[in-house]
Amino acid sequence: MVVLLEEDIQTKEVLDWKGLHLFHFSGSTCSQKTRIFLRLKGIEWTGHHLNLARKEHHTAWYMGINPRGLVPTLIHDGKVIIESNDILEYLEAQFPERRLMPDDKSDEIRALLKAEDDLHMDIRALTMRFMFPSFLTKRPESELKKYEELGSGTVEGEVDSHKQAELKFWRDIVEHGKVTDEQAARAFNNFRAQFNSFDKTLANQLYLTGSEITLADIAWYIYAQRLINSSYPLHKLHPAVGQWFDRLHSDPNFRNEVPSGGPIGAITSLLHAAQALRGTTLQRVVAKTA
Question: DSSP state, 241?
Fold first, then answer.
């Protein structure tokens, strides 16, 4: 669990904060699953919304709290926890009612959360290729250098290599002009393999670990929603997963955290129409690279 040490934190004022505080962004997948968790638990919290489009997560003040410059970040009575799955496990331990990580399912749930985390760059690749036009995804080198230099550079007292993976992702987009066909196809195939496995599981039970909703369902629901938004044919390729998704999506605690439409929805719809005309839709890209 990534709990920051005092030496990792440059914005020292948060060490004196009382209560539960969450730094988050409305459109962030990791923020969305954290907010769904808080809704299901009925936990009271203070929100600090950061607009990632305006780079509010790449200021000296915020990166003095989270040296990776990502959301969400949880502060609980001065303790700073980063990484969304660690935040969920921490909150589950602090607020055990309603149980979303039962003891007898904990190993299975952790394995499913790790599988989700391992595909984080893949969901980002599909998002940046099939939800936003390329001119919105390119980050100037000056911005990347600023990100590289801000923050303590340490997590749990150790030099943190996480930034280098972040920088490589964004610099690769600049180098190639977009998320490449190969990246997109690889991400598609990784998700298809995982959801094929889920389809077998969900043919015999309501949720990923049995008859009750757990942390695993929250995390993978968010990815399923993002894949649908990226034109991944979830219901067609994985019927049982589609039914599982619809079951969760019927609950406003889930659905209200992944609103559709608005400016982003309009941009994505126009992008999909343009990609259909050019023959560069997700499925065409996958077929071309097969």
Answer: H
**From the DSSP assignment, how many helices (H) and strands (E) are in the chain?**
15, 6
CA 98 to chain centre: 23
Neighbours of 153 (CB within 10 A): 16
Cross-strand partners of 76: 20, 79
Report the mean per-residue pLDDT for the chain: 96
Burial classification of residue 59, based on how many CB atoms lie within 10 Å of its CB (0-12 exposed, 13-18 middle, 19 or more buried): middle
Q: Which residues pair with 48 in a beta bridge?
A: 23
Whether residue 212 contacts residue 202, with contact meaning beta carbons closer than 8 Å, is answered with: no
pLDDT digits (tens, 9 = 90+) for 219-240: 999 999 999 999 999 999 999 9
Return the bridge partners of 115, or none: none
How far is the C-alpha of 89 from the C-alpha of 92, rounded, in Å?
A: 5
Longest dimension (CA), the chain: 55
Q: How far apart are CA 152 and CA 167, in angstroms?
A: 16
Separation of alpha carbons 108 and 103, rounded Å: 10
pLDDT in tens, 119-143: 999 999 999 999 999 889 999 999 9
Round to whole Å and give the CA distance between 15 and 76. 9
- Give the type of residue at 26: S
Q: Amino acid identity of 94?
A: Q
Nearest CA among 125, 177, 132 for reference residue 271: 132
**How do strand 46-49 and strand 20-24 relate by DSSP bridges?**
parallel
**Contact between 202 and 240 (Cβ < 8 Å):** yes
Task: Tell which residue, 218, 223, 214, has the closest CA to residue 109.
Answer: 214
Q: Tell me the one-letter amino acid at 119.
A: L
